[in-house]
Amino acid sequence: MVKNIPAERLLLETDAPYLLPRNVKPMPSHRRNEPMYLAHICAEVARDRGEDPSLTAANATAAARTFFGLPA
Fold it and tell me: What's the whole-model pTM score?
């Protein structure tokens, strides 16, 4: 389904505190999801969308700025 989300509406987050991204290596012992793992989530979303992670990150950043009314 993530392929069908328009790039200008795609937001990324690490909201689930105990659901670490599966691609974090080595897996931390604390098993707590934190904002520092957002790059891992972005990489997985980019893979599923068939695009470069830097493009996914740029699109998600632009969408977040628009959504929250933040300056560019």
Answer: 0.83
